[in-house]
Amino acid sequence: MNNNKTLVAPSLLSADFSQLGEEVRAVEKAGADWIHIDVMDGHFVPNLTIGPMIIKSLKPHTSLPFDVHLMIEDPDQYIPEFANAGADIITVHVEASRSPDRSVSLIKSLGKRAGISLNPSTGLETIENILAEVNMVLIMSVNPGFGGQSFIDSSLDRAVELKRMVNDLGLNIDIEIDGGIKPGNAARVRQAGANVLVAGSAIFGSEDYKKAISEIRG
Questions:
Q1: At 68, phi and psi to the nearest 5?
Q2: What's the average pLDDT block by block, 10 residues per block, for the chain (218 residues)?
Q3: Fewest CB atoms less than 10 Å from the CB: which of 23, 27, 56, 193?
């Protein structure tokens, strides 16, 4: 799906959890491209968020693709549940999957787009052997687990290097960056090679969702 257009994926982690259906409808109306859903298990990351039941309940509220980011241990055990709940893109962490290539194959076998994610301290070499199999790579620009953190600037260098790797292999995959993205640094993130920008508090914490999404898209 990689193209010249920058896609903006508001992260529900920063939304009003008492009004999730309304929040999803509001960001779709404001011009969002995807809905980014962080799933945390309290083990791989120090926080608990939502599961398949909530994703399924949100599906009727929007026509946007659900970009489901599994920050959980042993993701293969749960991938079918998230696929059945309505996930369109399922991303697993290279650090959490016992066999990332098997996880990616499982996601694709269920008719979903497959992503692989890396924490800030994980080297890009860990995903080199499966780049040709994935639809998207997600670079974490904060340490995963909580919203509202500051952007880690070295993530830009990682995005540039990943873009080079992707181009050298002649691949056409999405490069997504998640964590601390806001209107003030979005241009640098785009210039580094990312075409999918996840933003949580910069959108849901703003007074004007449409303006925030437009500024992040550039």
A1: -100, 120
A2: 81 96 98 97 89 97 97 96 98 96 98 97 96 98 78 95 97 96 96 97 97 97
A3: 56
CA distance 178 to 117: 10
Domain that holds residue 179: 7-217
Residue linked to tokens 């959890």: 17
Tell me whether residue 99 is in a domain: yes
Query: Would you say residue 2 lies in a domain?
Result: no
CA distances from 62 to 24, 28, 59, 105, 193 (A): 7, 7, 6, 27, 28
What domain count does the chain have? 1
Give the catalytic positions in this structure: 38, 178
Maximum CA extent, the chain: 46
Which residues, at least 6 apart from 211, have a Cβ–Cβ distance to it below 8 Å? none
Q: For position 2, what pLDDT does the model report?
A: 55
